[in-house]
Amino acid sequence: MIDPSVIRPEIALDDFLxxxxxxxxxxxxxxxxxxxxxxxxxxxxxxxAMPIAYLFWFLTAYSxxxxxxxxxxxEFTAKALIVSMIGYLLLPHAVYHMQHQVHEENEH
Amino acid sequence: MASNTLxxxxxxxxxxxxxxxxxxxxxxxxxLVAATQFVMPGFLFEILDFSVARTLHINALVVWMVFAxxxxxxxxxxxxxxxxxxxIKMGKLLYWxxxxxxxxxxxxxIFVQVGPADxxxxxxxxxxxxxxxxxxxxxxxxxxxxxxxxxxxFLTGMKGKQTGIVTVLMADMIAFAGLxxxxxxxxxxxxxxxxxxxxxxxxxVEATWEVFVGAIAAYGLITMIGAHRKVVEMWLWIExxxxxxxxxxxxxxxxxxxxxxxxxxxxxxxxxALEPIPLVAMFVxxxxxxxxxxxxxxxxxxxxxxxxxxxxxTWFVLNAFGNFLGxxxxxxxxxxxxxxxxxxxxxxxxxxxxxxxxxxYATILIGMMYIAVQGKNNIKVLKNTKSSIWAVSMxxxxxxxxxxxLTIAGYVQVLVSRAQMGATWAGYFDGQAGMWxxxxxxxxxxxxxxxxxxxxLLAKDLLTTGKxxxxxx
Amino acid sequence: xxxxxVWSDNRFWQRTATWVTGFAAVLLIWLTFDTxxxxxxxxxxxxxxxxxxxxxxxxxxxxxxxxxMDAKRGHEIPVIGGKNAEGRSAFQEKEKFFGRDDWTEExxxxxxxxxxxxxxxxxxxxxxxxxxxxxxxxxxLTKAWLDPAWGPEGSLQAMTxxxxxxxxxxxxxxxxxxxxxxxxxxPDLGITADEAKGLVAFLKHMSSIDTNxxxxxxxxIQGAVHGK
Lengths: 108, 473, 228
Prior knowledge:
The structure holds 3 protein chains of 3 kinds.
Chain A: H1 16-41, H2 50-71, H3 75-107
Helix pairs in contact in A: 1-2, 2-3
Chain B: H1 8-39, H2 50-81, H3 88-111, H4 119-124, H5 136-159, H6 164-179, H7 190-225, H8 229-250, H9 263-274, H10 276-299, H11 310-332, H12 337-343, H13 347-376, H14 386-420, H15 425-433, H16 435-464
Helix pairs in contact in B: 1-2, 1-3, 1-13, 1-16, 2-5, 2-13, 3-5, 5-6, 6-7, 7-8, 7-10, 7-13, 8-9, 8-10, 10-11, 11-13, 11-14, 13-14, 14-15, 14-16
Chain C: H1 10-39, H2 44-49, E1 65-70, E2 75-80, H3 105-121, E3 129-130, E4 133-134, H4 155-160, H5 165-174, H6 193-207
Antiparallel strand pairs in C: 1-2, 3-4
C-alpha cells in the first residue's frame, strides 16, 4: 500500500508530549496575560508589570505556533489560530475600556 | 438577609442544598469504588461492577449539581425579584417527588443493575446512555419537575423585579429543561443516537450550565463584595454572548468521529478554539470587580476587606480559576481534531472531565451552599475557619492530583494504545499494563481519598457554622 | 454622564447576546438537518446498488467489512464487500454471518434492533467506549468486529474454541467470566444466546460506519514499541 502520510502527515510519537505541553502552556500564558493586564489596570499590581503581561501574550502566540506546526494543522486552522491570537491581544483592552466607561458613568 | 424567619423560598433552597450535598458524598464514594477497581480488578466483581459504580458516580454528579442549581435559584429569587417566590407549595411537593424518584432509580441501579434486551429495561431499569442512564419513566418525572421549577422561576420573575440576572436565568433554565427532551428516544442508529445525546450533554455542560455559572457568579459578586450591579450585569450579557456564541457550535468537537460528516472538523476546531475565551473573561471579571470594589473602599479610608463571606468567596474565586483551568486548558489541549484522533476515549477525557466538572460547577455550587449557611444563620461576616481552609485545600488539591494522575495515564494510552496499536483489544491492554499508567491509577485513588477527606471536613464546617462564635452576627 | 457610549449600554449587550445565541442556534439546526440526512441509515437496496452510506443498512452483516487506508481522504475508511479500483467499497464480496449471507432486511433489522437495545440494557457504555464515547475501563468497541484478536489467527477466537468470529464473540458475551482474558474481567451480564447474536450484529454494523478514520492505525501495526 502506498504511504498515505504524504497526504496527511501523522503526528510523530515524540511530538505528542510537546504538543500537549505547548497547548497547555498557550492557555496558561494567555491566562497570565489577561490576569496581569487586569491586575495592573485595577492597581492590584504596579504599572511596571505591564510589559510582563505582553511578554506572556508573546509566549502564548509562540506556544500556539509550536503546537500548530507539530500537529500539522491545515491552512484553515492555521488562519483561525492567527486570527484568534490577534483577537486575544485586543480582547482585554476592549473589555477594560468598556468596564471603565460603565464605572465612570455610574459612579462619578 | 435581615429577616429573622427564613423566607420560604430560601428554606426550600436549603432542602435542595442538603440533598445535593448527600449526593455529592455518594458521588465521591462510588468514585472511590470505581478507582479501586482500576487498581484491584477483583474488588466487588460481579457484586457492584465497575459499570454500576461508574453509573452511580456520574449520575450522582449530574443530579447533585442539578439539585444545587435549583437550590441556588430558589435562594436568590427573593433577593433579586424582591417578592416571595410564586408557587412555592408546588415547589416543595416537586422536591419530594424528585427525591423519591431518585431514591428508586438508585436502588434499581444497585440491586437490579441490568435487564433483558427489550423495551422494559429501557423503561424501568436503565437506558444505558452515559450520563442520562435514568430509565424512561424517570425521564418523564424529571421533565415534570423541571417544568414546575421553570414555572416557579417564570411566574416570580415576571411578577417581581426582573433584573438582568433573573432574565438570564429564565432564558437559560428553559433551554436547560427543554434540551433534556433530546435524550429521550431510542434509535437503532448509533450515530443518530450519539448525535442527539450530545445535544443534552454538550449543550448542558458547555452552554447552559456555563451561563448559569455566569449568572450565579454575578449574584455572588453583588452579595459578597457589593460589586456594582450595572457593571456585573453588563458583564453577564457579554459572557452570555461569548458562551453561547462559542459553546453552541463548539458542539462540533463531539462530531469528529461518530459517523457525522467531515465538515464538523473545521466547525469543531474553530469554535472549540474560541470556547476558552469566555472562561478567561469570567476569570478577569471576578478579579476586576474585586480589585475595583476593594480599591474604592480603600480610597474611602476603609482598609477592611469588602468580602462578607470568606469561604464562599474562596470557592467563587476557585471557580473562576478552575473553570479556566479545567474546561479551558484541559479542554483545549485535546480539542483539535488532529490530536483528538488519538486522545478521544482515553483517560485524557477523564482527566478533563474531573477538573472541568469540579472547577466549573462543584466550586461555585459549594460557594452557594456557604452563602445559604450564612443567610440561614443570620451571619453578617462569615469567616474562614481551620476546617473550611483545610476542606478547600484538600478537595481542590485532591481533584488536581487526580487530574494530573489521569493525564499521565492518558498520555501512556495515547502513545501505546492509540498512536502505535490503533485501539485494538491488545493495544488497549498493553496501554493499561504500562508502568506509568498503573502508577497513574494508584495516585488517582490516593488523591480520590484526599478529596473525600476534604469532603468530610467540608461537611463538618457547613454543619457547625451556625453554632460557631467566630462569625460576626 | 453626557456621552453615554453604546458599548456600556446593557440593552445593547442584551441584544447582542440574543442575536449571537439565535444565530448560533439557527446555524446548528441547519447543520443538523444536513447531518441527519447524511447519517440516516441506508437500506438493503443501497447496498445492492453500490451506494455508499455513512451508516449502511442492517444487511451489511451479509458482507465482508474491512477498514482500509483511503489515499484521497487521508485516513482509513470502512470498505464493504471488497474494494473496487478506487479502493472504495465494491459491495460484492459476501461473508457468512452465523452460517448465512442472505439475511433479509427485516431479519437483519430485527437483529440490529435487538443488539442496540442489548447494548443499552447491559450498560456496555459504562465500561467500554462506543465510537470513542463511554467509559475507559475496557477496550473501545467501534471497530471491535475487525479486531485481529477475534480473527482466525486471533487469541480470543482460539480461546473460545469456536471456528468463526461471530460464534466466538457470541460465546464470550454469554460467559465472559469463563474466559478470563485479562486480570480485569468482563462480568456475567446474563446475556442470552439470542441477545449475544444481536450484540454481535450490532458490533459488525458499527464497524461499517464511516467514522472519519477513528480509530487510527487499527490493527495495522504489529509489535509496536511499548511505552518509554
